[in-house]
Sequence to fold (466 residues):
Amino acid sequence: MEHNKNQNLLRKLPGVDHLLELIKKDTSFKQLPLNVCKSSIRYALENIRTNILNEKKVDLSDKTILATVFKHANNDIKNNLIGVINATGVVLHTNLGRSLLCKEALKNITDISSGYSNLEYNIDKGTRGIRYSAVEDLLCELTGAEAALVVNNNAGAVLLSLNSLAENKEVIVSRGELVEIGGAFRIPDVMTKSNAILKEVGTTNRTHARDYTMAISDNTGLFLKVHTSNYQIEGFTSSVPVADLVTIGKKHGIPVMEDLGSGMLIDFSKYGLGSEPTIRDSVKSGADVISFSGDKLLGGPQAGIILGKKDIINIIKNNPLTRALRIDKLTLAALESTLRLYRDEENVIKKIPTLRMLTDSYTNIKKRASTILKRLEPVLPKHVEIKLADLSSRPGGGAFPSLTLPSSCITIKSAKISAVELEKKLRKNDTPVIGRIEDNCFVIDPRTIQKGEEKIICKTLIKILN
Ligand SMILES: *Cc1c(COP(=O)(O)O)cnc(C)c1O
Fold:
Protein backbone atom coordinates (compact mmCIF):
# COMPACT_ATOMS: atom_id res chain seq x y z
CA MET A 1 0.00 0.00 0.00
CA GLU A 2 2.55 2.54 1.17
CA HIS A 3 4.75 1.62 -1.72
CA ASN A 4 1.99 2.34 -4.24
CA LYS A 5 1.10 5.60 -2.58
CA ASN A 6 4.73 6.73 -2.79
CA GLN A 7 4.92 5.71 -6.43
CA ASN A 8 1.82 7.77 -7.15
CA LEU A 9 3.24 10.83 -5.49
CA LEU A 10 6.58 10.44 -7.27
CA ARG A 11 4.76 10.24 -10.59
CA LYS A 12 3.00 13.52 -9.81
CA LEU A 13 6.27 15.44 -9.39
CA PRO A 14 6.51 18.19 -12.01
CA GLY A 15 9.31 17.89 -14.57
CA VAL A 16 12.41 20.06 -14.75
CA ASP A 17 11.41 21.51 -18.14
CA HIS A 18 7.93 22.44 -16.94
CA LEU A 19 9.39 24.32 -13.95
CA LEU A 20 12.03 25.98 -16.12
CA GLU A 21 9.31 27.31 -18.46
CA LEU A 22 7.49 28.82 -15.47
CA ILE A 23 10.72 30.43 -14.27
CA LYS A 24 11.41 31.98 -17.67
CA LYS A 25 8.02 33.71 -17.50
CA ASP A 26 8.43 34.82 -13.87
CA THR A 27 10.11 38.25 -13.58
CA SER A 28 11.22 37.62 -10.00
CA PHE A 29 13.74 35.09 -11.38
CA LYS A 30 15.14 37.57 -13.89
CA GLN A 31 18.39 38.23 -12.01
CA LEU A 32 19.16 34.54 -11.57
CA PRO A 33 21.28 32.71 -14.20
CA LEU A 34 19.34 29.91 -15.89
CA ASN A 35 21.98 27.32 -14.98
CA VAL A 36 21.69 28.23 -11.33
CA CYS A 37 17.89 27.87 -11.56
CA LYS A 38 18.26 24.46 -13.18
CA SER A 39 20.44 23.10 -10.42
CA SER A 40 18.12 24.62 -7.81
CA ILE A 41 15.16 22.89 -9.46
CA ARG A 42 17.02 19.59 -9.25
CA TYR A 43 17.78 20.29 -5.61
CA ALA A 44 14.13 21.06 -4.84
CA LEU A 45 12.82 17.97 -6.65
CA GLU A 46 15.41 15.74 -5.01
CA ASN A 47 14.34 17.09 -1.64
CA ILE A 48 10.70 16.27 -2.28
CA ARG A 49 11.61 12.80 -3.55
CA THR A 50 13.49 12.08 -0.34
CA ASN A 51 10.58 13.35 1.73
CA ILE A 52 8.14 11.14 -0.18
CA LEU A 53 10.29 8.08 0.38
CA ASN A 54 10.56 8.95 4.07
CA GLU A 55 6.76 9.18 4.28
CA LYS A 56 6.89 12.88 5.05
CA LYS A 57 4.14 15.27 4.04
CA VAL A 58 4.90 17.01 0.75
CA ASP A 59 3.42 19.91 -1.21
CA LEU A 60 3.70 19.30 -4.94
CA SER A 61 2.23 22.60 -6.11
CA ASP A 62 4.29 24.59 -8.61
CA LYS A 63 4.10 27.62 -6.34
CA THR A 64 5.66 25.89 -3.35
CA ILE A 65 8.36 24.22 -5.42
CA LEU A 66 9.24 27.49 -7.16
CA ALA A 67 9.51 29.18 -3.77
CA THR A 68 12.09 26.56 -2.72
CA VAL A 69 13.93 27.00 -6.01
CA PHE A 70 13.96 30.78 -5.58
CA LYS A 71 15.38 30.58 -2.07
CA HIS A 72 18.01 28.01 -3.01
CA ALA A 73 19.09 29.88 -6.15
CA ASN A 74 19.42 33.16 -4.26
CA ASN A 75 21.59 31.47 -1.67
CA ASP A 76 23.63 29.85 -4.38
CA ILE A 77 24.60 33.13 -6.07
CA LYS A 78 25.94 34.65 -2.85
CA ASN A 79 29.71 34.84 -2.47
CA ASN A 80 31.44 32.27 -0.35
CA LEU A 81 34.01 34.78 0.81
CA ILE A 82 32.02 37.33 2.81
CA GLY A 83 32.65 40.11 5.29
CA VAL A 84 32.28 39.38 9.00
CA ILE A 85 32.27 41.56 12.08
CA ASN A 86 35.25 40.90 14.32
CA ALA A 87 34.05 41.46 17.87
CA THR A 88 36.72 39.19 19.36
CA GLY A 89 39.18 41.95 20.23
CA VAL A 90 41.97 40.01 18.48
CA VAL A 91 43.37 42.67 16.17
CA LEU A 92 45.46 40.52 13.82
CA HIS A 93 43.02 37.60 13.59
CA THR A 94 44.51 35.24 11.00
CA ASN A 95 41.22 33.33 10.53
CA LEU A 96 39.37 36.59 9.93
CA GLY A 97 41.83 38.00 7.40
CA ARG A 98 44.52 39.65 9.55
CA SER A 99 45.09 43.29 8.52
CA LEU A 100 42.42 45.67 7.28
CA LEU A 101 43.80 47.85 4.54
CA CYS A 102 43.98 51.63 4.84
CA LYS A 103 41.91 53.85 2.54
CA GLU A 104 44.99 54.86 0.56
CA ALA A 105 45.76 51.22 -0.25
CA LEU A 106 42.18 50.53 -1.34
CA LYS A 107 42.18 53.49 -3.67
CA ASN A 108 45.50 52.50 -5.19
CA ILE A 109 44.30 48.91 -5.76
CA THR A 110 41.33 50.28 -7.71
CA ASP A 111 43.46 52.73 -9.70
CA ILE A 112 46.16 50.23 -10.61
CA SER A 113 43.93 47.26 -11.36
CA SER A 114 41.26 49.02 -13.38
CA GLY A 115 43.76 50.19 -15.97
CA TYR A 116 47.20 49.36 -17.33
CA SER A 117 50.21 50.27 -15.21
CA ASN A 118 54.02 50.43 -15.27
CA LEU A 119 54.16 47.21 -13.24
CA GLU A 120 57.15 45.92 -15.18
CA TYR A 121 57.83 48.87 -17.46
CA ASN A 122 60.50 51.54 -17.13
CA ILE A 123 58.79 54.75 -18.24
CA ASP A 124 62.06 56.76 -18.45
CA LYS A 125 63.78 54.30 -20.74
CA GLY A 126 60.78 52.81 -22.50
CA THR A 127 62.08 49.34 -21.69
CA ARG A 128 61.17 46.44 -19.49
CA GLY A 129 61.17 47.41 -15.82
CA ILE A 130 61.37 45.61 -12.50
CA ARG A 131 58.25 44.80 -10.48
CA TYR A 132 59.94 45.36 -7.11
CA SER A 133 61.08 48.91 -7.87
CA ALA A 134 57.68 50.20 -6.73
CA VAL A 135 58.64 49.49 -3.13
CA GLU A 136 62.37 48.74 -2.96
CA ASP A 137 63.64 52.30 -2.38
CA LEU A 138 60.79 53.00 0.03
CA LEU A 139 61.60 49.89 2.07
CA CYS A 140 65.29 50.82 2.17
CA GLU A 141 64.45 54.36 3.27
CA LEU A 142 62.13 53.17 6.06
CA THR A 143 64.41 50.43 7.39
CA GLY A 144 67.97 51.42 6.54
CA ALA A 145 68.45 48.24 4.48
CA GLU A 146 70.68 48.16 1.38
CA ALA A 147 68.23 46.25 -0.81
CA ALA A 148 64.77 44.71 -0.68
CA LEU A 149 62.45 42.27 -2.39
CA VAL A 150 58.80 41.35 -1.82
CA VAL A 151 57.07 38.02 -2.40
CA ASN A 152 53.70 36.39 -1.76
CA ASN A 153 53.98 35.99 2.03
CA ASN A 154 56.57 35.53 4.75
CA ALA A 155 56.39 31.74 4.57
CA GLY A 156 57.41 32.14 0.93
CA ALA A 157 60.11 34.63 1.90
CA VAL A 158 61.68 32.15 4.34
CA LEU A 159 61.45 29.24 1.87
CA LEU A 160 62.96 31.35 -0.90
CA SER A 161 65.77 32.76 1.24
CA LEU A 162 66.75 29.35 2.60
CA ASN A 163 66.70 27.82 -0.88
CA SER A 164 68.71 30.70 -2.36
CA LEU A 165 71.36 30.84 0.34
CA ALA A 166 71.62 27.33 1.73
CA GLU A 167 70.51 24.69 -0.78
CA ASN A 168 72.21 21.42 0.20
CA LYS A 169 73.98 23.27 2.99
CA GLU A 170 73.53 23.23 6.72
CA VAL A 171 71.49 25.93 8.40
CA ILE A 172 72.21 26.33 12.09
CA VAL A 173 69.15 27.11 14.23
CA SER A 174 68.62 27.18 17.99
CA ARG A 175 66.34 24.43 19.35
CA GLY A 176 64.40 27.15 21.12
CA GLU A 177 63.43 28.66 17.75
CA LEU A 178 62.10 25.65 15.81
CA VAL A 179 58.61 27.10 15.88
CA GLU A 180 55.28 26.24 14.35
CA ILE A 181 53.25 29.26 13.30
CA GLY A 182 49.55 28.30 13.02
CA GLY A 183 48.41 26.30 10.00
CA ALA A 184 51.20 24.38 8.38
CA PHE A 185 54.24 26.59 8.78
CA ARG A 186 56.94 24.78 10.75
CA ILE A 187 60.56 25.79 10.51
CA PRO A 188 61.90 22.19 10.18
CA ASP A 189 59.41 21.43 7.37
CA VAL A 190 60.12 24.63 5.46
CA MET A 191 63.80 23.83 5.83
CA THR A 192 63.29 20.39 4.24
CA LYS A 193 61.24 21.82 1.37
CA SER A 194 63.89 24.45 0.68
CA ASN A 195 66.50 21.69 0.39
CA ALA A 196 68.51 23.11 3.25
CA ILE A 197 69.80 20.85 5.99
CA LEU A 198 68.60 21.70 9.47
CA LYS A 199 71.30 21.66 12.12
CA GLU A 200 69.78 22.18 15.55
CA VAL A 201 71.92 23.56 18.34
CA GLY A 202 71.46 24.33 22.03
CA THR A 203 68.43 23.34 24.05
CA THR A 204 64.80 24.42 24.20
CA ASN A 205 65.42 27.04 26.86
CA ARG A 206 69.11 27.93 26.49
CA THR A 207 71.36 28.34 23.49
CA HIS A 208 74.79 29.98 23.67
CA ALA A 209 77.17 31.54 21.16
CA ARG A 210 79.55 28.57 21.57
CA ASP A 211 76.74 26.21 20.44
CA TYR A 212 76.68 27.98 17.09
CA THR A 213 80.49 28.13 16.80
CA MET A 214 80.91 24.44 17.60
CA ALA A 215 78.31 23.45 14.98
CA ILE A 216 80.11 25.17 12.11
CA SER A 217 81.38 22.81 9.41
CA ASP A 218 82.66 23.11 5.84
CA ASN A 219 79.08 22.73 4.72
CA THR A 220 77.51 25.45 6.87
CA GLY A 221 75.49 27.80 4.66
CA LEU A 222 73.58 30.04 7.04
CA PHE A 223 72.77 31.00 10.62
CA LEU A 224 69.01 31.37 11.02
CA LYS A 225 67.40 33.29 13.84
CA VAL A 226 63.62 32.88 14.13
CA HIS A 227 61.38 35.18 16.09
CA THR A 228 59.40 32.97 18.48
CA SER A 229 56.32 34.94 17.52
CA ASN A 230 53.52 33.11 19.23
CA TYR A 231 55.08 31.96 22.47
CA GLN A 232 57.58 33.02 25.06
CA ILE A 233 59.91 30.95 27.18
CA GLU A 234 60.31 32.33 30.66
CA GLY A 235 62.61 31.46 33.52
CA PHE A 236 66.11 30.05 33.00
CA THR A 237 66.59 31.08 29.42
CA SER A 238 69.31 32.34 27.14
CA SER A 239 69.53 33.04 23.44
CA VAL A 240 72.13 34.62 21.21
CA PRO A 241 71.40 38.12 19.87
CA VAL A 242 71.61 38.61 16.11
CA ALA A 243 74.54 41.04 16.52
CA ASP A 244 76.59 38.26 18.18
CA LEU A 245 75.68 35.80 15.43
CA VAL A 246 76.81 38.40 12.91
CA THR A 247 80.20 38.65 14.64
CA ILE A 248 80.65 34.85 14.56
CA GLY A 249 79.32 34.68 10.99
CA LYS A 250 81.78 37.32 9.76
CA LYS A 251 84.71 35.39 11.23
CA HIS A 252 83.67 32.22 9.37
CA GLY A 253 82.15 33.71 6.24
CA ILE A 254 78.62 32.58 7.13
CA PRO A 255 75.64 34.86 6.40
CA VAL A 256 72.96 35.45 9.04
CA MET A 257 69.23 35.46 8.40
CA GLU A 258 66.54 36.66 10.77
CA ASP A 259 62.89 35.66 10.31
CA LEU A 260 61.22 38.45 12.22
CA GLY A 261 57.70 37.12 11.75
CA SER A 262 55.64 40.19 12.44
CA GLY A 263 58.19 42.95 12.20
CA MET A 264 57.30 46.54 13.04
CA LEU A 265 58.38 49.78 11.45
CA ILE A 266 57.47 51.95 14.41
CA ASP A 267 58.46 51.71 18.05
CA PHE A 268 55.30 50.49 19.80
CA SER A 269 56.80 50.97 23.27
CA LYS A 270 55.83 54.64 22.90
CA TYR A 271 52.25 53.46 23.02
CA GLY A 272 52.78 51.12 25.96
CA LEU A 273 52.99 48.02 23.79
CA GLY A 274 55.99 45.96 24.87
CA SER A 275 59.53 46.81 23.90
CA GLU A 276 60.28 44.75 20.82
CA PRO A 277 63.04 45.91 18.49
CA THR A 278 61.89 47.56 15.26
CA ILE A 279 62.88 46.32 11.80
CA ARG A 280 65.37 49.19 11.63
CA ASP A 281 67.00 47.86 14.84
CA SER A 282 67.31 44.41 13.23
CA VAL A 283 68.90 45.89 10.12
CA LYS A 284 71.34 47.80 12.33
CA SER A 285 72.36 44.65 14.15
CA GLY A 286 73.89 43.53 10.86
CA ALA A 287 71.83 40.54 9.70
CA ASP A 288 72.50 39.80 6.03
CA VAL A 289 68.87 39.05 5.32
CA ILE A 290 65.66 39.76 7.24
CA SER A 291 62.12 38.67 6.45
CA PHE A 292 58.70 39.58 7.84
CA SER A 293 54.99 39.64 6.93
CA GLY A 294 53.16 42.48 5.21
CA ASP A 295 49.85 41.80 6.97
CA LYS A 296 50.90 41.47 10.59
CA LEU A 297 52.05 44.50 12.59
CA LEU A 298 52.88 46.40 9.41
CA GLY A 299 49.14 46.55 8.71
CA GLY A 300 49.40 46.11 4.94
CA PRO A 301 48.39 43.39 2.48
CA GLN A 302 49.57 39.77 2.65
CA ALA A 303 53.19 39.84 1.54
CA GLY A 304 56.62 38.58 2.48
CA ILE A 305 59.18 41.34 2.72
CA ILE A 306 62.85 40.49 2.40
CA LEU A 307 65.51 43.05 3.32
CA GLY A 308 69.24 42.60 3.14
CA LYS A 309 72.68 43.24 1.81
CA LYS A 310 72.74 44.03 -1.91
CA ASP A 311 74.69 40.94 -3.02
CA ILE A 312 72.47 38.61 -0.97
CA ILE A 313 69.22 40.15 -2.26
CA ASN A 314 70.62 39.80 -5.78
CA ILE A 315 71.18 36.08 -5.28
CA ILE A 316 67.57 35.74 -4.09
CA LYS A 317 66.19 37.83 -6.97
CA ASN A 318 67.91 35.51 -9.44
CA ASN A 319 66.44 32.32 -7.98
CA PRO A 320 63.74 30.92 -10.33
CA LEU A 321 61.58 30.30 -7.23
CA THR A 322 61.22 34.08 -6.90
CA ARG A 323 59.09 34.07 -10.04
CA ALA A 324 56.90 31.33 -8.57
CA LEU A 325 56.38 33.29 -5.38
CA ARG A 326 56.03 36.70 -6.95
CA ILE A 327 53.80 39.36 -5.49
CA ASP A 328 50.81 40.34 -7.61
CA LYS A 329 50.04 43.88 -8.71
CA LEU A 330 47.06 44.43 -6.38
CA THR A 331 49.19 43.53 -3.41
CA LEU A 332 52.06 45.65 -4.63
CA ALA A 333 49.74 48.64 -5.05
CA ALA A 334 48.39 48.19 -1.53
CA LEU A 335 51.84 47.68 -0.06
CA GLU A 336 53.29 50.81 -1.66
CA SER A 337 50.44 52.97 -0.37
CA THR A 338 50.71 51.48 3.11
CA LEU A 339 54.49 51.96 3.24
CA ARG A 340 54.21 55.58 2.08
CA LEU A 341 52.11 56.38 5.15
CA TYR A 342 55.02 55.34 7.39
CA ARG A 343 56.99 58.38 6.19
CA ASP A 344 54.73 60.46 8.41
CA GLU A 345 55.09 58.81 11.81
CA GLU A 346 52.74 61.25 13.54
CA ASN A 347 49.78 60.28 11.39
CA VAL A 348 50.48 56.68 10.47
CA ILE A 349 48.87 55.43 13.70
CA LYS A 350 45.57 57.04 12.72
CA LYS A 351 45.62 55.98 9.09
CA ILE A 352 46.51 52.29 9.24
CA PRO A 353 43.61 50.38 10.81
CA THR A 354 45.83 47.76 12.48
CA LEU A 355 47.90 50.45 14.20
CA ARG A 356 44.81 52.46 15.13
CA MET A 357 43.17 49.43 16.78
CA LEU A 358 46.34 48.35 18.57
CA THR A 359 46.93 51.79 20.06
CA ASP A 360 43.27 52.64 20.77
CA SER A 361 42.90 53.81 24.37
CA TYR A 362 40.88 52.12 27.10
CA THR A 363 38.93 55.37 27.58
CA ASN A 364 37.95 55.54 23.96
CA ILE A 365 36.94 51.88 23.84
CA LYS A 366 34.89 52.30 27.02
CA LYS A 367 33.04 55.20 25.41
CA ARG A 368 32.14 53.00 22.43
CA ALA A 369 31.14 50.11 24.69
CA SER A 370 28.84 52.46 26.65
CA THR A 371 27.16 53.64 23.46
CA ILE A 372 26.35 50.06 22.51
CA LEU A 373 25.16 49.28 26.04
CA LYS A 374 22.90 52.34 26.12
CA ARG A 375 21.36 51.38 22.82
CA LEU A 376 20.66 47.78 23.87
CA GLU A 377 19.75 48.05 27.57
CA PRO A 378 16.26 49.54 27.15
CA VAL A 379 15.18 47.20 24.35
CA LEU A 380 16.41 43.78 25.52
CA PRO A 381 14.01 41.53 27.47
CA LYS A 382 14.32 40.90 31.23
CA HIS A 383 16.01 37.50 30.88
CA VAL A 384 19.08 39.20 29.44
CA GLU A 385 21.81 40.53 31.69
CA ILE A 386 24.00 42.99 29.81
CA LYS A 387 26.93 44.87 31.38
CA LEU A 388 30.30 46.45 30.75
CA ALA A 389 33.36 44.57 31.98
CA ASP A 390 37.04 45.43 32.06
CA LEU A 391 38.60 42.62 29.99
CA SER A 392 41.50 42.37 27.58
CA SER A 393 42.03 42.42 23.83
CA ARG A 394 44.98 40.69 22.17
CA PRO A 395 47.24 41.81 19.32
CA GLY A 396 47.12 38.33 17.66
CA GLY A 397 49.02 37.33 14.53
CA GLY A 398 51.87 36.01 16.62
CA ALA A 399 52.80 39.51 17.74
CA PHE A 400 53.55 40.29 21.39
CA PRO A 401 52.44 36.78 22.54
CA SER A 402 52.19 37.60 26.22
CA LEU A 403 50.78 41.10 25.87
CA THR A 404 47.16 41.92 26.53
CA LEU A 405 45.53 45.28 25.85
CA PRO A 406 43.15 46.70 28.48
CA SER A 407 39.67 46.92 27.00
CA SER A 408 36.11 47.63 28.01
CA CYS A 409 33.77 44.93 26.72
CA ILE A 410 30.06 44.23 26.71
CA THR A 411 29.10 40.95 28.35
CA ILE A 412 25.76 39.27 27.69
CA LYS A 413 24.12 36.51 29.69
CA SER A 414 20.60 35.20 29.34
CA ALA A 415 18.46 32.80 31.36
CA LYS A 416 16.83 31.61 28.15
CA ILE A 417 19.68 31.25 25.69
CA SER A 418 23.13 29.91 26.55
CA ALA A 419 26.31 31.77 25.61
CA VAL A 420 27.20 28.90 23.27
CA GLU A 421 23.83 29.14 21.52
CA LEU A 422 24.06 32.94 21.28
CA GLU A 423 27.58 32.70 19.86
CA LYS A 424 26.33 30.27 17.21
CA LYS A 425 23.34 32.41 16.21
CA LEU A 426 25.46 35.54 15.86
CA ARG A 427 28.06 33.63 13.87
CA LYS A 428 25.39 32.34 11.49
CA ASN A 429 23.81 35.75 10.94
CA ASP A 430 23.71 37.11 7.35
CA THR A 431 26.58 39.35 8.41
CA PRO A 432 28.32 37.03 10.85
CA VAL A 433 29.21 38.60 14.19
CA ILE A 434 32.18 36.77 15.70
CA GLY A 435 32.65 37.22 19.43
CA ARG A 436 34.04 35.15 22.25
CA ILE A 437 32.79 33.40 25.38
CA GLU A 438 34.28 34.11 28.79
CA ASP A 439 32.87 32.86 32.10
CA ASN A 440 29.67 31.68 30.38
CA CYS A 441 29.02 35.16 29.02
CA PHE A 442 29.06 36.20 25.40
CA VAL A 443 31.68 38.96 25.08
CA ILE A 444 31.80 41.79 22.55
CA ASP A 445 35.06 43.73 22.39
CA PRO A 446 34.65 47.11 20.65
CA ARG A 447 38.40 47.38 19.88
CA THR A 448 38.07 45.43 16.61
CA ILE A 449 34.58 46.64 15.65
CA GLN A 450 34.63 49.03 12.68
CA LYS A 451 32.62 52.19 12.13
CA GLY A 452 29.01 51.39 11.24
CA GLU A 453 29.16 47.82 12.52
CA GLU A 454 27.73 48.69 15.96
CA LYS A 455 24.34 49.18 14.34
CA ILE A 456 24.34 45.70 12.78
CA ILE A 457 25.46 44.12 16.05
CA CYS A 458 22.66 45.81 18.01
CA LYS A 459 20.01 44.94 15.44
CA THR A 460 21.11 41.31 15.36
CA LEU A 461 21.24 40.99 19.14
CA ILE A 462 17.76 42.47 19.48
CA LYS A 463 16.45 40.02 16.89
CA ILE A 464 18.07 36.98 18.52
CA LEU A 465 17.41 37.83 22.17
CA ASN A 466 13.79 38.95 21.90
C1 LIG B 1 53.78 34.59 10.77
C2 LIG B 1 55.14 34.07 10.64
C3 LIG B 1 55.57 33.45 9.46
C4 LIG B 1 54.64 33.26 8.30
O1 LIG B 1 54.29 34.50 7.73
P1 LIG B 1 53.08 34.60 6.66
O2 LIG B 1 53.16 35.99 6.16
O3 LIG B 1 51.84 34.26 7.39
O4 LIG B 1 53.38 33.59 5.60
C5 LIG B 1 56.85 33.00 9.40
N1 LIG B 1 57.70 33.13 10.45
C6 LIG B 1 57.31 33.71 11.61
C7 LIG B 1 58.29 33.81 12.72
C8 LIG B 1 56.03 34.20 11.74
O5 LIG B 1 55.64 34.79 12.88
About this structure: The chain has a mean pLDDT of 95. Residues 85-92+359-465 form a domain with the Aspartate Aminotransferase, domain 1 fold (CATH 3.90.1150.180). The longest strand covers residues 384-396.
